[in-house]
Hints:
37% of the residues lie in helices and 26% in strands. By secondary structure, the protein is an alpha/beta fold.
Amino acid sequence: MKHIAVIGLGLFGTSVAETLVQQGHYVLGIDIDERRVQQLSRQLNQCVSVSNVDEESLLSLGIKEYDAVVVAIGDIEANIMVVQTLQELGVKRVMAKAVSHRHGRVLQRLGVTQVIFPEHDMGVRAAHSLSGDRIIDYIELSHDYNIIEVQAPPQFVGKTLAEIDLRKQYRISLIAIKTAQSILVSPAAETIITARSILVVIGKNEDLTQFYD
């Protein structure tokens, strides 16, 4: 279990915080809006309203002891100021929401561990879902490589992974096979694909497109 703080409890921050709790982590939610804090007080392990997210308030909450801090503040100036404060305090891992690519570049220069583009990422996922009817989820790793979760094509059903040979046919690699009940990581060559199988694969964009088109 990790101890993670989420600063800014808007739609994005709330979604991150609640998901982390569901995954079994200890989550501290921080916001200047007391109403939001009250609404989430039962969902999170700890939820605190502060008049100002500054060095004094963060130190009083023991922020330096947390494994990671997510800055989910939408206001660019406030976002950057909080990130800068966290960096000065020596917080181990800082992830920050960016509202534009220029904002993201500033955050990268400040040395954040990871910049998150919620609107961009959701837009990319939506576009790929529309492009391929079988795509369930899409994760952009880099400009060239991505991971997709895709419903097994009908022509794969009843065949083994060895018979399908994704690497040879499509130049992509299988990471796992998911079903409603379980996930099988690094499945063996003799594993048989069923109609309910969800394939988690990684590869270059052009190869993935050829696979699910």
